[in-house]
Amino acid sequence: MPMPFTETHDRQPVVAGQFYTNDADALLTEVTGYISQAQPKDEARTILAMAPHAGYYYSGVIAGVTLGQANLAETVLLLGPNHTGLGKPFAVWPDGRWLYPGGALHVDAELAALLCEKEPQLTPDTLAHQREHSLEVMVPFLAALNPDTRIVPISVSHPSLDTLLSVGKTIGRTLRGFERPVSILVSSDMSHFVAHELAKEQDSQALDPALHLDPVRFFETVRAGNISMCGVLPMTVGIAAALELGATQTEITAYATSGQVNGELRRVVGYAGMLAS
Hints:
CATH architecture: 3-Layer(aba) Sandwich
Structural class: alpha/beta
CATH superfamily: LigB-like
Shape: globular
CATH class: Alpha Beta
Number of helices: 10
């Protein structure tokens, strides 16, 4: 089914120079430095990964060791939260390229079109992504790992558990039948603006059902506990999709809070990395 667009859409980086340097050489050096701290790459194909999207000064190491250990397919489905409130509740960037300082990753337009065909909730929409940072900050890491990576960015803001589960299952079934292997990368930070010890406690509560690949208990734990994890919606979708793709093994690759970086322990943001295969 053709996309309802007549031209391709390139996305310019909007948080280069803020969340990460806009100097191409320095960016590559920084990102490869984070990735070099990873454990040896997993042998099993990564079905689902989760990595944080704060400024690299705070969360770059967590993202680097997670994605460096991941065994990602050459096509990566990106799921991220919508911080801006713009655009559709399941907004798919349909085609073109996502630029970053020093290069660009191509969007897998074939897979984007197929997903929108199989799941009516998934809608071609660039507005939700135009000022959103959560997926942009993943791009330099993916490019450093494999510059031929193709991506399908999806911004998720739909609040209904039933809908999130349904869309996740359809995504998983679609990826399972797709001609090329696809990994899923969820972009999410954990607790926001609470004390360090409380963040560790709340984030542990949220990560436990995620590690057990239980999307219902994960969603309900985060909501009932008022845990301010910004990526609860895309991660619920991601876990549901990963189950359809046969994921059984999970691990936390790293965890830290911003307080461990800047010394301010009274008001922190939590960062976690997770892999499932």
